[in-house]
Structures
1.
Amino acid sequence: NNEAAGTTIKLVDSTLNATPLTNVIATNGTVELENTAVLGTNGDGQKPGFFISSDAAGVIRGSTRIAGAYGKGVNNEGTFYMYGGTIENNRANAGAGLTNSGKAYLSGGKITGNESLTASGGGIINNTGAELYLQGVEISGNTAYSIGGGMALTDGSLCVMTGGAVSDNHAGGNGSSAGGGGANVAGGAQFYFLGGSFSGNTI
């Protein structure tokens, strides 16, 4: 594990292989990953590939990959910045690619091939009180057990999309709710769609 407490750590051109425990933890500082692979085992454990606490910031850039975690690719409780890179092939009960409970600013990059196993948000779940800003991001090929194959925007959350594509995601419609192959917007969520596209999403 790699932890930051009140400082900045930058990993460049690195590969981190791990057991199902969390690979990278930002506790009270900034962790930046550039052209770095964070690879989980997709086994048991329900731990994220990149965890960002409420007092911390996390950044991914370039060709960074966060892949194969069983328990969310990125779990953000603080501030998360994505400038390119890929969050792919992660699994979790909900919010398999990105679980956002803080503020997330995504500009470019891909969130693809992630799967929620028992609930919503195959690609992204934006939790109550969270803010999500999307610009030029590809959210594709994700699957949710219930709702929100691409994105699940929960009651009291905010999402602003100003470009990018949400495509070929699937919501299984299991459980008490069904819908939102591309995005499921809860009744109390705010979703501002200012540009981009939705296509090929299914339920």
2.
Amino acid sequence: IGSATATVVMVPGEAVVPADVLRDVLKVCKGAVTIAHGLKGRLRIRCGTATWNLPLLDAGAVPRMALDKAPKRSMTVRCSGADLAFAIGCTAFAVSKESTRYGLNGALVEHTPDGLTLVATDGNRLALYSVPVSEGEGDAKGALLPPAFLRIAQAVCAGAHMEAVTLTVDDRTVRLSGDQWTIIARLMDGEFPDYRQVIPKRA
């Protein structure tokens, strides 16, 4: 997950800190925040009269996702964040929790004539929801989204109100972006069944 905000950079650099600790600190900050490398391998955060010294983690141990390689296929769509959050809420409950059914442990995402379609099933029930897209291009072949990505995407999109979001899927990763944030996750490798065969053609 990445996020950006307007800042004044005095000296460029990078630092890795525990996410939950940083979240708790920023929650209580009111006004301008100053962040700098402190002494003894700590990150110093100042806000008003308060100062925190956060422990630094090894930046070299953080896994890097290979995003610079040209993908074999790619799909990009743009839709309402609120619509996407609603679609995830309408389908994620049907994702299978059985570890032996790996192909059903995620939700299928497709770019169809109906828009952006999410499908999930545990073998006993199936949930499908489509949202309209304002823009769409690329490979229409579906991809399997992991449950952790669905949970985070739903929470972030629900807080984005009417902000438009962009969903990009290639052969390895899924990327969801808003105005100042980006979520990237690896796709699941399982094979999702042909759900169209179990949907009655006439109702």
3.
Amino acid sequence: EDPVICPDGNGGVIVAWISEDDIYAQRIDAEGNRMWGDIGTHVSSLELDEDNVQITGDGEGGVVLTWKLRTENSEADVYAQRLDTEGNLLWGDEAIVICNVQYSQRDPRVVLHSDGFFIVWEDERNAYIDENRSWDIYGQFLESNGEHRWAEGGSLICGADEGQQNPEAVVDCEGFIWVLWDQRTNDIIMQKIDPAGDMPGLI
């Protein structure tokens, strides 16, 4: 269920999906052949429910995936994994944590950058500290080996009192990251970010 797809950069595609709360991926070449076995690569078998999977090609024939993991206390964290062109897991057998701070994170998105990868998500951590806060937007820049470039737990992109949701991201031709989201005041807001995490201001 919940399949997603991206190009592999070699004339084929990579798809990912959820099966019995686990994540699988498969690479299909230009002739329609399955390149990662009959059932694909088992990306994650963490013992709790996984969903919200999103993917991007890694520029080398592989893929980076990010998803939400439901925790035992009914909160949610964000994880990620990278597969190479042969379907091998590159970021450990159990993936890497993008954010697991207290309370929930959800709805992650991932984009390829020339220096690595950028992941953005909705984050609930501040809603229990300030009664005027709701879901915020946080992000993390990953090096090609999965190491976090920004602070552990991610960097705050927008924490307006009204709340934010539905983040999306793209990278422009100069390497700047543009993040777009739905402000719960019926406004659409954007932020421009450089790979070091500097943010000139909302748009």
